[in-house]
Design brief:
The complex is a heterodimer of chains A (515) and B (125). Chain A contains 21 helices and 17 strands. Chain A has helices at residues 3-18, 23-31, 37-44, 104-120, 139-155, 175-179, 197-204, 210-214, 216-223, 233-246, 270-273, 284-291, 336-351, 369-373, 376-389, 404-409, 433-440, 442-447, 451-466, 470-474, 487-497, and strands at residues 51-53, 76-83, 86-93, 124-128, 161-165, 168-170, 182-186, 191-193, 228-230, 298-300, 308-315, 318-325, 356-362, 394-403, 419-422, 427-429, 480-481. In chain A, the strands form 3 sheets. In chain A, strands 10, 11, 12, 13, 14, 15, 16 and 17 form an 8-stranded mixed beta sheet that branches. Chain A has a 7-stranded mixed beta sheet with strand order 1-2-3-4-5-7-9, with helices on both faces. By secondary structure, chain B is mainly beta. Chain B has 2 domains: 7-46, no CATH class; 58-124, RNA polymerase II/Efflux pump adaptor protein, barrel-sandwich hybrid domain (OB fold (Dihydrolipoamide Acetyltransferase, E2P)). Chain B has helices spanning 7-12, 43-46, and strands spanning 23-30, 35-42, 58-60, 65-70, 77-78, 83-89, 92-97, 102-107, 114-115, 120-124. Chain B has a 4-stranded antiparallel beta sheet, with no helix packed on it. In chain B, strands 7-6-4-9 form a 4-stranded antiparallel beta sheet, with no helix packed on it. Chain B has a two-stranded antiparallel sheet with strand order 1-2. In chain B, strand 6 (83-89) and strand 7 form a beta hairpin. Classes of the chains: A alpha/beta (515), B mainly beta (125).
Chain lengths: 515, 125
């Protein structure tokens, strides 16, 4: 056979594989409002950058009539490519081939590309669209899942791991996304759960739709399993591309710097955002936008535990992770979910050399039986742990209220913050003036002729004495009391002079964080 | 402490029988597989609230606090983003906004009233 003929043969073989599960299956996929696996990869990656491997992999299952079945690529596509020039490894499950079910060779392809990503120290992106384990392959498919989870864990904190849920992801399969750094979901397309509505109905007698049980909104608002929510697959891919620009390729690098830009100061007037009255709410994201380059803020987990705001922005072209109390939602308290959310993000930034800026304005931890019984002690401790453990530059700006345990938790000097700045309106105290005056002056107040008048006077006294940044500044707990408009300049400087930060912690295998 | 039972005795233990005040035996049947699994059920499980599809027209409080001011009346048409009330909680005058369009059917709270979490505050139609 001439080489020319052999080339033709190869082209034919390729064409066959490129058809995936065939026309009918593709039609079904489109009818569900979904793109095919190949379309997804090509849309997400830079033009013509995708190169596929293991195209001709075949399954080895022989039982239950599998011997005669041809499953192109065994239901998953793997390869390498670039996003804005950044190299990435990628896999996408192909729902048109046997429902994207995971058999042994399917899993082997995924673990192969994961191993490759680890060797090359580049991000790995996994697009999930699978009916679950391939039952005909029995324990072999379970082995496959386990080998993926093991690699997810090993790669955690070394290379960025991104999971995109574009279809069902049920049963054991959900644990791969859960082990990765960022999970992307799309409305009406993503479905994630351990046990589906059928089993829940059989076992518990509860009726619930797939959407209500594990749809995109549920995971974005209620469970916190998803980090980014999109209305369409295209929007989702744009979000992934944007994320890639903010993070480094691996844990030994820094994110690539951008050209520095000034914030849009005519839109976000930093002096006017925070009300003087500590009881008035405002949107802390406006403060972030008044500080960041081009007033750009890329928020993560926007809809879940919105009483804390986390996300990336740039200062002077460098990626910075923001952790901010949000007075607009639940008074900005720390509770079970917001502690979880902040702690994980802090650890992410620490693992990937991203400086952390903390904007503080909170009344403290949320009191209440449900919070106590939900384990606010254990969850709240995660914030303390994450800040204390982090060795990246840690900069705090106290905007207004910083009371009690909340003050300590939000990257205070005492947890080894590198810089602590406070705005002149900051109130740093063990608790709010009302509560404090009621306790300290209980006797004076109850014994006064006009207790209400006395109470007001004592609250005023306490306010004047303690509800300011100067008591903390006098002890050196606050490095500098600054004007709001000086914030960006000081943050820029702080990051600049922290470039060679060394923070040697005692050697250990790993800590025991309260998770 | 109940003594440990043999498998045979376990099989013969009638359902719903209390073995201790905290836990009790019951069985779960998975229909499709036709197999019976015996398992321990805790008080917490027994007392769990069955999931019901939330009625988005009913608005509940998310934080305990004091109603400072209600900005709408019954029968009033409201739009998403409109100010519903100011609820003082955790040293903050929290602005509660409508998250959907509708007409106020009934208001269950009054000004200066202290309300707990998950308190029915308003109903839309």
């Amino acid at each position: 056979m001439s080489l020319k003929r052999k080339i033709l043969e190869l082209q034919k073989k390729r064409e066959k594989v490129l058809q995936g599960g065939g026309e009918k299956a593709i039609e079904k996929q489109v009818a569900m409002g979904k793109m095919t696996a190949r379309e997804r990869i090509i849309t997400l990656l830079d033009e013509n950058s995708f190169h596929e491997y293991d195209m001709f992999v075949e399954h080895e299952a022989r039982d239950f009539g599998m011997a005669t079945k041809v499953l192109h690529g065994d239901g998953v596509i793997i390869g390498t490519g670039t996003i804005f020039g950044a190299p990435v490894c990628i896999y996408a499950q192909d729902f048109t081939v046997a429902g994207g079910s995971l058999g042994l060779m399917h899993a082997r392809k995924i673990t192969k590309i994961m191993d490759h990503a680890m060797k090359m120290r580049v991000p790995i992106i996994g697009i999930n669209d699978s009916g679950g384990a391939r039952i005909q392959e029995g324990v072999n498919s379970l082995a496959g899942y386990g080998e993926i989870f093991y690699r997810n864990t090993t790669a955690s904190g070394v290379i960025p791991q991104i999971s995109v849920i574009l279809g069902p992801c049920a049963g054991g399969a959900v644990y791969s996304p859960a082990l990765t750094d960022f999970v992307f979901v799309v409305d009406k397309i993503s479905k994630m759960f351990i046990t589906g509505p059928e089993v829940i109905k059989t076992v518990l007698g509860e009726e619930i739709s797939m959407e209500d049980l594990g749809g995109a909104r549920v995971h974005s608002e209620k469970t916190g399993n998803a980090h980014f929510y999109a209305e369409s697959e295209l929007e989702c891919f744009d979000q992934i591309k944007k994320l890639i620009t903010y993070i480094p390729w691996n844990n030994s690098r820094k994110a690539l710097p951008f050209e520095a830009q000034e914030p849009k100061i005519d839109l976000y007037k930093i002096d006017e955002i925070v009300p003087g009255n500590p009881k008035e709410p405002y949107d802390v994201r406006d403060v972030v936008r008044a500080i960041t380059d081009d007033s750009d803020f890329f928020e993560i987990q926007e809809m879940w535990a919105a009483n804390i705001v986390i996300g990336f922005g740039r200062i002077n072209g460098e990626t910075v992770g923001f952790v901010c109390n949000q007075p607009l939602v639940l008074a900005g308290v720390l509770d079970v979910d917001s502690s979880d959310k902040a702690a994980r993000f802090i650890r992410y930034c620490d693992a990937f050399n991203i400086p952390i800026v903390t904007l503080v304005d909170l009344p403290g931890y949320l009191p209440g039986v449900d919070q106590e019984h939900a384990g606010v002690i254990r969850h709240g401790a995660k914030v303390l742990y994450a800040y204390s453990e982090a060795t990246v530059p840690k900069i705090t700006v106290i905007l207004r209220k910083a009371y009690g345990g909340g003050y300590i938790a939000m990257n205070s000097r005492h947890l080894n913050a590198d810089f602590v700045f406070a705005w002149p309106g900051a109130e740093i105290a063990v608790m709010g003036p009302e509560g404090a005056a009621n306790i300290i002056f209980r006797k004076e107040i109850t014994e006064a002729e006009d207790p209400e008048k006395m109470r007001k006077q004592k609250v005023k006294e306490y306010k004047e004495k303690f509800a300011n940044p100067y008591v903390a500044a006098a002890k050196g707990y606050v490095d500098s009391v600054i004007e709001p408009r000086e914030t960006r300049r000081l943050l820029l400087h702080a990051i600049e002079v922290s470039k060679n930060k060394v923070d040697n912690k005692p050697e250990k295998k790993h800590g025991i964080p309260p998770f | 402490m109940a003594t440990k039972k043999t498998e045979k005795e376990m099989d013969e233990t009638p359902l719903e029988q209390d073995d201790s005040p905290k836990v009790r035996y019951s069985t779960i049947m998975l229909q499709e597989q036709g197999a019976k699994y015996k398992t321990l059920l805790t008080e917490k499980y027994k007392n769990r609230v069955k999931w019901e599809k939330p009625d988005l027209r009913k608005i509940y409080s998310e934080i305990p606090g004091t109603v400072i001011k209600v900005y709408v009346e019954e029968g009033q048409k409201v739009n998403e983003g409109d100010l519903m009330m100011v609820l003082e909680a955790m040293k903050m005058k929290n602005k509660i906004l409508f998250t959907q369009n509708g007409v106020v059917k009934k208001i269950y709270v009054s000004e200066n009233e202290k309300i707990p979490k998950n308190h029915l505050m308003m109903e839309l139609k």
